[in-house]
Design a protein that fits this description.
Distance between the termini: 187 Å
Strand order of the largest sheet: 1-3-2
Shape: elongated
Number of strands: 3
Number of helices: 45
Oligomer: single chain
Length: 791
């Protein structure tokens, strides 16, 4: 009894009839195009020894079913067919077969009637169609062509099934007496399916193959061979013209132009820009410019806001506002009056608002300030909008409008309920003293978000901080200084900002002062030359006790740029304050009054005179050397006269070298000339330097009898006969008069001795200096008359 005879048993037949029950992991996805009649009665499969690799197949559950007449007929036909073809299946044993049924849609769709599909051992049994069912051949063909749906389970993977050879039996249709017979197709034995290599493996193999060919020299990589293989032929010019150029073939400018052409109003924008090029020319007559303005206005009417948001069309609108007539500006204003706040935040539209503020009427400016009301605190924190607020506040706002902008920082009540009689915060504090704490707390809350490097650069913000520091308590002031101390470098270029920095220096702690000084590093030379920033350095010299730290951070950097500082009018103020602080000869009483406010601070402990002496000792020697190195330019510079006097008078050390350097310039041979080659005695600034240095000897000799006098050094350096040559000019005569009026017997007698032989020449001269000098010489030559006593 062969294997197929063993299979033809009632028990096995009952196993083949038993349907399967879906497992728990079975996909519940239905047929994509509705229920199919072929899935209502599943095809029963027989597999050989399912292993652990056959994860997609599940064991069929057996159920008892009474065999019908049709089933018996089909079994008999199948039995005869298996016996006739037993030679082809001799390698299959009965123990290797087991009833299996696919569980999911993907398993059903993966069973194809071609030898490429691998199943362990598949025997397809033809079953007689039941009554009431149609032919399912077409639907099976459709399912076979469609394959597994997306997401279906890959239960019949080739990787798991490739080891088992496939024996597939093609079903033979049941032949009845009333139907024509058909030829049975031969049963073919399938080949094992080879595992396909992945793309990554194929690329790797190809690269290795290419490398081996190159190494063996079998691969020709020359340019001629590539040209022969490619055989490229250039297209005709007509073909190139017909093709649309690709983005890669176009240049950057061409791609940009193509993008612009896709935008709205492209033709209108290009025409307006051409008119703008002619309209903005300075040499264009006014009548032609007005015609162009009218044409541009007709183009942009109704689109002003849209065109103001782009960088090129915004310039067209700006030019229209600048050169247009009042009617054009009014029309533009009407279009954008509801978008003023949003345009202030735009990178390009803000310049249109700036032009309206500059060239608009007074009513239009007032409308702008009314629009800003209630939005100042938001706009001032915006990087673009704060520039418009700054421009409007400094250039066109009057006192009530400035206060209106400031009141938003005083509290919501001042924003909602405006009092037009109020003109300043000082007036509010006097009239409503009970609101002082509320105003200061609101100001503090509003000012803390403004401590940003970009926002702190504007004078409007500086005004708010200055008002806060003026009225704040010690505790609130200390808290604000701690937050603001590292950002003061961005504020000291304005009047209010410098006052804020001075308050931080005066009332800050020792740590606060050190942080402030460190933040000034690399900026000292610029601060010295600033109109308001140099005041901060004066405050530092007054109150900071750590003079070594000040010398290291401030003075060393300043002395490195001493020539730049000394040539600037504000830089000379800093140097003079180090030489003689709060001297009324150099500093206005108002400046002194401002600096005196810092004397009440509680942080400074060192005596002011001691602090000043330590700083002066550090700068004296470099300043004296500066005069020696630059005597030629300083002696004839009228602005540097006070600095020279201050250095020679107050600097610690021997000023002999500095005086000698100036005296040597005056000792040069005198020749009457005009222009740049004038002698120091005849120069408008040089003769004043000599006179002031000579008159300064009176004060020096009074204060210190051992002091070095410039007059003695001058007479020592001058050659014989030099004083007589000075008498040839008016300014030289006045210099000689200064020497004669000096209360020094040695100097006076020496000058008189050298001028004794020029009296006749002085009588012939007509200028005023010669006459006064002659009177001085004659008066000194005659002995004094005795006074008559009335008896």
């Amino acid at each position: 009894m062969n294997d197929y005879d063993m299979m033809d048993t009632p028990v096995l037949r009952r196993k083949m009839k038993k349907p399967t029950t879906p497992k728990a992991g079975r996909s519940m996805r239905g047929n994509p195009e509705g229920n199919s009649i072929i899935y209502k009665d599943k095809v029963k499969l027989s597999t050989a020894h399912p292993t652990s690799d056959d994860s997609g197949l599940s064991t069929l559950r057996k159920r008892k079913k009474k065999p019908t007449e049709d089933d018996t007929y089909a079994e008999i036909e199948e039995k005869h067919m298996r016996r006739s073809q037993s030679s082809n299946f001799s390698n299959v044993s009965s123990s290797s077969l087991e009833e299996m049924t696919p569980d999911t849609l993907s398993q059903i769709s993966s069973i194809m009637a071609v030898p490429d599909v691998t199943v362990n051992s598949t025997l397809t049994r033809l079953k007689k169609p039941r009554a009431g069912r149609g032919d399912v051949t077409w639907e099976k063909a459709v399912n076979h062509a469609r394959g597994a749906p997306d997401g279906a389970e890959r239960s019949f993977h080739a990787k798991k099934m490739s080891k088992v050879s496939v024996i597939e039996e093609v079903p033979t249709p049941v032949v009845k007496k009333d139907s024509p017979t058909k030829e049975n197709k031969p049963i073919t034995q399938g080949k094992p399916v080879e595992r396909k290599k992945s793309i990554k493996v194929q690329l790797k193999n190809a690269a290795n193959r290419l490398k081996s060919l190159k190494s063996k020299g079998k691969l020709d990589t020359s340019r001629e061979s590539r040209k022969r293989k490619l055989d490229i032929s250039l297209p005709d010019e007509s073909t190139i013209a017909m093709k649309k150029p690709k983005d890669k073939e176009m240049s950057w400018k061409e791609r940009r132009q193509q993008r612009k052409m896709t935008k709205n109003n492209y033709d209108l924008i290009m025409k307006a820009k051409k008119l703008w090029e002619d309209m903005r020319r300075h040499a264009l007559p006014d009548d032609q410019r007005q015609k162009l303005c009218q044409e541009v206005f007709n183009m942009v009417r109704g689109k002003v806001h849209e065109m103001s948001m782009a960088h090129d069309t915004a310039r067209v609108v700006q030019c229209l506002v600048q050169y247009g007539n009042p009617e054009h500006r009014t029309a533009v204003m009407e279009e954008i009056k509801d978008e003023i706040v949003s345009m202030c935040k735009s990178k390009y539209a803000k310049f249109v608002i700036r032009k309206i503020l500059k060239y608009g009427s007074k009513q239009q400016r007032n409308f702008m300030f009314k629009t800003f009301h209630g939005n100042v605190r938001k706009l001032i924190r915006h990087r673009e909008a704060v520039e418009i607020l700054e421009f409007a506040y400094n250039e066109y706002a009057n006192a009530p409008q400035r206060l209106s902008m400031m009141e938003e920082f005083y509290g919501p009540s001042f924003t909602l309920f405006k009092n037009h009689d109020t003109k300043s915060l000082e007036q509010i504090m006097l009239e409503q003293p009970d609101k002082k704490d509320m105003i200061l707390s609101n100001m503090k809350e509003a000012l803390l978000p403004l401590i940003d490097k970009d926002i702190l650069a504007h004078s409007m913000v500086h005004k708010i901080f200055h008002d806060f520091f003026h009225y704040a308590t010690d505790k609130m002031r200390s808290e604000m200084i701690e937050c603001l101390r590292e950002q003061l470098i961005t504020m000291i270029h304005t009047r209010d900002g410098s006052r804020v920095a001075m308050n931080c220096v005066w009332f800050g702690t020792v740590k606060d002062r050190k942080v402030i000084l460190k933040s000034f590093k690399t900026h000292i030379a610029r601060i010295c030359q600033d109109e308001y920033g140099h005041m901060v350095l004066l405050a530092i010299f007054d109150v900071v006790d750590d003079t070594k730290f000040v010398s290291k951070v401030v003075l060393e950097e300043m002395l490195k740029s001493l020539s730049q500082v000394a040539e600037n009018q504000y830089g000379r103020k800093v140097l003079l304050y180090l030489l003689s602080p709060r001297d009324p000869l150099h500093f206005h009483p108002d400046i002194v009054h401002i600096l005196q406010r810092g004397d009440t601070n509680t942080t400074s402990k060192k005596d002011g005179h001691t602090r000043h002496r330590e700083l002066l000792d550090f700068v004296s020697k470099p300043l004296l050397q500066y005069i020696v190195d630059n005597a030629a330019t300083l002696a004839i510079n009228n602005a540097a006269l006070l600095l020279i006097l201050g250095i020679i008078t107050h600097a610690k050390g021997d000023p002999t070298d500095a005086m000698t350097a100036i005296a040597e310039i005056a000792a040069q041979p005198f020749s009457a000339s005009k222009g740049d080659n004038q002698h120091m005695v005849e120069h408008p600034a040089g003769h004043l330097t000599l006179k002031r240095l000579i008159l300064n000897d009176k004060e020096r000799s009074t204060d210190d009898e051992c002091a070095v006098l410039f007059s003695n050094i001058l007479l020592t350096v001058l050659a014989e006969g030099t004083l007589k040559s000075w008498a040839a000019c008016n300014r030289g005569c006045f210099t000689l008069i200064s020497l004669l009026e000096l209360d020094d017997i040695e100097v006076t007698s020496q000058v008189r001795q050298q001028l004794s032989g020029i009296k006749k020449s002085l009588r012939k001269m007509t200028f005023k200096g010669a006459q006064i000098l002659l009177q001085k010489l004659e008066g000194m030559s005659s002995p004094p008359r005795p006074q008559m006593i009335d008896l």
